[in-house]
Amino acid sequence: MKRFITGLVILFLAAGTVFSQTAINLDQYRTGIEDFADDLAAVLPLNSSIGLNWNDAYIGQILDVPPHFGIGVTAGFTTIPYGPIKNLVEDAMGGNSDDIPSLVKSVGVPVPAGVIDARIGGFFLPFDIGLKVGYLKFDMSDIKVDYLLLGGDVRYCVLEQAVFIPKISVGVGFNYMKTDATLGGIMNATTIDASAAYGHAAGADMVSMTSPDLYLEMESKVLDFKVQASWNVLIIEPSIGLGASYGFSQVAAGAESRLLMNGSDINLNPADMATLSGLGYDVDSDGIGYTKNVSAASFRAFGGVGFLLPFVRIDLGLLYGLTTRSWGASLGGRFQL
């Protein structure tokens, strides 16, 4: 997982001077972050679906002999498409998206995820219950990431497998995801014209930041529905499915740096704080940003193949956001009866 995140860092740092020293105003700064949040609203639920997407559509009952349950780990990633990144770079930070690496433009920015996931068979009725938890803390010279993913689901088997008929289940679940990331070394000096906030003419109050870090904070609560079909053929179990999610999310972004007003240190007295906070900005002596609450529905297709070994299952999976054109992949291994 750390190697994967290191690759993510390289993608960002390859941009070099993505963010140039171009003066922008507060409205432009806010609008860019709002657009970024709107674009992410339907993307975040896809990332929260990593884990518990086992290829077996239904594992059986705990009262069977032997009892049916499983526990293991799943790691994977989903992507943030180029569109939201372009909005953040150009609109919010006054940068030039032409400097963004072509790989990011073509496939997006990968967001990793990893969980411990477990599932236990139901009793009397054909259902199973799954739980997952994942936490990652990564601190490198130019990147810091805190990642938390919690979730659970219940699946009900509506059709048992026959010779030419797949096993089919329907499920409902809830996921919670929170990611805080700070990226350094990708922004040059930034200047924001804050004159309008203080009722002054343009150019009177220029807030400048020297080599700021970019911070991103994303939190999402997701209600998820899915239908899945799988076929058990000897030691191989392919599966396909469709999912629908509705996410209630909060997205914050901004620049962290020592703030200067017209070349002098800002004295953030209560009046200054009240003025900017009253306009909705997140501001203190260490930076300025903006937070937006967003919600959106998203739809996905998923599938993969499982390998059934004695007491061990290995799953390969793919995800595709039908409404966002984002995609992802996962690899899981577990002990299962």
Outline the secondary-structure elements.
Blueprint (H helix, E strand, L loop, with lengths): L1 H12 L9 E3 H15 L3 H5 L20 E12 L1 H11 L9 H6 L1 E13 L5 E13 L3 E17 L7 E17 L6 E4 L12 E4 L3 E18 L5 E21 L2 E3 L2 E2 L4 H9 L2 E4 L2 E23 L2 E10 L5 E10 L1
Parallel strand pairs: 1-7
Antiparallel strand pairs: 2-3, 2-16, 3-4, 4-5, 5-6, 6-9, 7-8, 8-11, 9-10, 10-14, 11-12, 13-14, 14-15, 15-16
Helix pairs in contact: 2-4
Largest sheet: 10 strands, antiparallel, barrel
Helix content: 10-25%
Strand elements, count:
16
Question: How big is the Rg?
Answer: 23 Å
If strands are numbered along the chain, what order do they take across the biggest sheet? 2-3-4-5-6-9-10-14-15-16
Mean pLDDT: 82
**Helical element count?**
6
What is the N-to-C succession of helices and strands?
HEHHEHHEEEEEEEEEEHEEEE
Low-confidence stretches: 1-21
Shape: elongated
Give the distance, in angstroms, between the N- and C-terminal Cα atoms.
27 Å
Strand content: over 45%
The structural class is: alpha+beta
What does it look like?
17% of the residues lie in helices and 52% in strands. With 337 residues, the chain is an alpha+beta fold. A ten-stranded antiparallel β-barrel has the order 2-3-4-5-6-9-10-14-15-16. Strands 1-7-8-11-12 form a five-stranded mixed β-sheet. The longest helix is centred in the N-terminal third of the chain and has 15 residues. The N terminus is likely disordered.
